[in-house]
């Protein structure tokens, strides 16, 4: 059962009613207000204030505010008059009558909400229609502008074409006049030749000599050379760097080491591995299996697989580097440092082909040093990795953190 609030206050003028309802220490988020022209309810469990107003008010013009622990209502009267009471409930005890009044208030509020929603929908529809009309008007104006521009372009193109035709006609007339003039000149010269003695005139002696020299020169020239294609073969290089930037001896030494590793295992006695299958005797296959176990989070099983691969071939740097990553996950920090160092020892000489592997080994050893709080040694490894890949933003951030830790420790020790 709700607790009915009785200690409310109200005042009035001929045009407004002022009601103050104490909130009993409740916050604004706990207060629920419902109002119509004839009904007012404030609910903040377990308290309830309910008023069936003495006369109708203008609910749309009324206001409600919360100030200093009170709910203040300003209700605008529909007609200017003084009320004898705030509510019609005063002196009434008929529950059915009160229930009918409450239902009528709720129904009126629902009808008002429906009307408001309908009005809002009509307003939205009108705004959409206005927007659509405006867009259509703008599109019409834009279309008219485009048509006007097209008409202007057509007129300009037609004028240019007409001017070009006139120029062509003038040129053709000029050319025709020139040809007529040449024909007349030729006809005149023909008439003059006819008036002379019969027979063709001979060429001047100098012209005959020049023509004979040109014919002799053409006879001495060799025949045109037949076409063909020259094939050029380039020696392929293993390393991506240009030859002028490469350290050829170091690259050749690295290739030789890789070839020695791939020629076969370095294990002295393989009798202990007779029970293994052909795949299980392949260090590359074991490395892939160990990598999958590492990704799955089974670090101890991955270490066991890397151990077997190293017993078969102990000169593969990736096996030591990947086993170091497993030891890091299992907090075997000294073993991680040992395996990373062995990987770096095998990744010599430093060339472009093993740059990525060297960077990973430096980062793993540096991480292990930092976990052991050997920050200076860790910083050296991170700086070496950053020298290999200067543009790596993650490496830059980690290096800066380690440097800040060292500087912070130095300042603490000085204090």
TrEMBL record:
The primary location reported for this protein is other
Residue ranges annotated as compositionally biased, kind Polar residues, are 204-213
SMART domains reported for this sequence: TPR (SM00028)
| Residue stretches of biased makeup (Basic and acidic residues) | 183-195
> Annotated region Disordered: where?
163-227
Cellular component terms (Gene Ontology): dynein axonemal particle; extracellular region; neuron projection; nucleus
Ranges in a coiled coil? 107-141
Which GO MF terms does the UniProt record name? Answer: nuclear estrogen receptor binding
Q: What is the lineage of its organism?
A: Eukaryota, Metazoa, Chordata, Craniata, Vertebrata
Residue intervals of the CS domain: 3-87
Protein location: Cell projection, Neuron projection; Dynein axonemal particle; Nucleus
Which Gene3D superfamilies does the entry link to?
2.60.40.790, Tetratricopeptide repeat domain
Name this protein carries in UniProt: Dynein axonemal assembly factor 4
InterPro entries to which the protein is assigned, alphabetical = CS_dom (IPR007052), CS_DYX1C1 (IPR037894), Dynein_assembly_factor_4 (IPR052004), HSP20-like_chaperone (IPR008978), TPR-like_helical_dom_sf (IPR011990), TPR_rpt (IPR019734)
């Amino acid at each position: 059962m709700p607790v009915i609030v009785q200690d409310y206050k109200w005042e009035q003028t001929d045009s407004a009613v002022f009601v103050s309802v104490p909130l009993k220490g409740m916050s604004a988020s706990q207060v629920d207000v419902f109002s119509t022209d004839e009904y007012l309810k404030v609910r903040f469990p377990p308290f309830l204030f309910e008023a069936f107003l003495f006369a109708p008010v203008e609910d749309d013009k009324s206001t409600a505010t919360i100030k200093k622990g009170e709910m203040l209502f300003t209700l605008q009267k529909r007609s200017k008059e003084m009320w004898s009471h705030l509510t019609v409930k005063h002196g009434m005890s008929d529950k059915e009558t009160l229930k009918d009044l409450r239902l009528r208030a709720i129904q009126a509020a629902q009808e008002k909400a429906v009307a408001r929603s309908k009005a809002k929908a009509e307003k939205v529809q009108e705004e959409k229609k206005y927007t659509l009309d405006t867009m259509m008007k703008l599109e019409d104006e834009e279309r008219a502008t485009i048509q006007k521009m097209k008409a202007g372009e057509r007129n300009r193109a037609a004028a240019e074409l007409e001017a070009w035709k006139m120029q062509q006609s003038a040129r053709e007339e000029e050319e025709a006049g020139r040809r007529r003039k040449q024909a007349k000149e030729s006809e005149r010269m023909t008439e003059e030749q006819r008036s002379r003695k019969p027979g063709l005139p001979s060429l001047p002696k100098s012209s005959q000599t020049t023509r004979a020299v040109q014919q002799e020169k053409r006879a001495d020239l060799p025949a045109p050379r037949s076409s063909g294609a020259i094939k050029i073969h380039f020696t392929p290089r293993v390393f991506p760097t240009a030859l002028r930037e490469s350290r050829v001896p170091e690259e050749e030494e690295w290739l030789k080491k890789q070839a020695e590793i791939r020629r076969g295992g370095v294990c002295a006695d393989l009798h202990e591995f007779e029970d293994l299958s052909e795949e299980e005797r392949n260090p590359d296959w074991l490395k892939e299996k160990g990598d999958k176990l590492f990704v799955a989070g089974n670090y101890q099983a991955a270490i066991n697989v890397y151990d077997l691969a190293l017993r078969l071939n102990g000169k593969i740097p990736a096996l030591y580097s990947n086993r170091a990553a497993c030891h890091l996950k299992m907090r075997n920090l000294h073993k991680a440092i040992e395996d990373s160092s062995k990987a770096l020892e095998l990744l010599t000489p430093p060339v472009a082909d093993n740059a990525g592997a060297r960077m990973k080994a430096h980062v793993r050893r540096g991480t292990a040093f930092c976990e052991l709080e050997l920050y200076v040694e860790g910083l050296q490894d991170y700086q070496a990795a950053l020298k290999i890949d200067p543009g790596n933003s993650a490496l830059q951030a980690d290096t800066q953190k380690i440097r800040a830790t060292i500087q912070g420790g130095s300042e603490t020790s000085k204090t």
